[in-house]
Amino acid sequence: MASKASEDTRFSVLSAENVRLYAEVIGVTKLEDNLARSLAEDVTYRVRHLLQTAQQFMKHGKRRRMTTEDLNRAMQLTNVEPVYGYGSGEDMPFRSTSTKEGDVFFVDEKEIGIRELALSTAVPTDPGKVSVRGKYEMYFTVHATVLGCSSKAAISTAGLEYYEQITKAVLGESDVCRRMAFSDLQSNPKISCIFPYFVSFIASGVKSCSHDLKQLSRLLGMVSALTDNSSLFLDPYVIQLVTAVMYCLLETLTVSLNPVNDHWRLRRDAACILAFLSRKCSNPVNYLHQQLLMTLREVLTDESRPYCSHFGAVVGLMELGSEALEQFLLPHLSTYWHQLQQVLEDDSSSNGVLRGEALHVYAALLVCIKDVHST
């Protein structure tokens, strides 16, 4: 029990109770337990990722003390607002006080006597004369809000035209244009400045097109083409790309409500892309591979999730390799197999759709077992 408890808390920083307190501050009084836990895990991961990135900046600067500037640079990489009000050279002494919940640490701010300050005879140092230096630049830009992004970055007119042509070709009905678009995204070394807009397009597109199997497949093809481009730096956007792929892999898509739609193939394609992202982008800083394994195991062992989500978790683990199957699938296989058999043995007409979905999971599990035994 002690080892299990340590395993549960090893990666935790923020508890679900903290999330509820923050929610109450902004007016959300009834936050469900599972939602609070999910938010706590997500915030924990993002905080750890931010601190580890800042630590890399500190090491590259050959320093042993992390500064606010290190954190600001790390935040800049993840499109997070910087910390205002503190400078790198400022000393920030912390104090602690005990509460019922534990020790609380805070910055020790000095009290300033307004009366003494007003009556002081000390004259502030003259900073010097104010001067203005002009610099002329001419360029044409279109703000990212035109593209449906919340970023304040800008894109050139030529870049905007390229963006519109590529997205139109990807979602259009012409296979020839789509192949040309994918080929260019895969090899063009000059699209780094437009890459964030494509990521935003994909992230919003998978959710708005969850009813359209073709469009979801095309968006996954766009992810595959972009991740194949060796000129692009994926790290700042890997979380958004993984989230979009995981949505296609694990979520109950609108298109999956109709048994005629072959969303199973879509989930297999998503699993292949997810495994490629894990191999290419996982590193000791982001713990991407480990996070993916833990998420897939959590979905597979969640009995409230539908079989299409379980199928996505199984094929996802299968694409991540035999070691992932041995560590994250096989320990839960006996319990899951027994539950699956109960559904497969029910031949009633009312169980037809559910049994059909369970058969897909059953077939995927057989392939996984074969792969494990072959290795």
UniProtKB/TrEMBL annotation:
InterPro entries: ARM-type_fold, Histone-fold, TAF6, TAF6_C, TAF6_C_sf, TAF_TATA-bd_Histone-like_dom. GO terms for molecular function: protein heterodimerization activity; RNA polymerase II general transcription initiation factor activity; transcription coactivator activity. It is found in: Nucleus. GO terms for biological process: RNA polymerase II preinitiation complex assembly. SMART domains: TAF. Residues 12-76 form the TATA box binding protein associated factor (TAF) histone-like fold domain. Keywords: Nucleus, Transcription, Transcription regulation. SUPFAM superfamilies: ARM repeat (SSF48371), Histone-fold (SSF47113). The keyword Nucleus applies. One of its GO terms (cellular component) is SAGA complex. Belongs to the TAF6 family. PANTHER family: TAF6-LIKE RNA POLYMERASE II P300_CBP-ASSOCIATED FACTOR-ASSOCIATED FACTOR 65 KDA SUBUNIT 6L, TRANSCRIPTION INITIATION FACTOR TFIID SUBUNIT 6. This is TATA box binding protein associated factor (TAF) histone-like fold domain-containing protein. It comes from Nematostella vectensis.
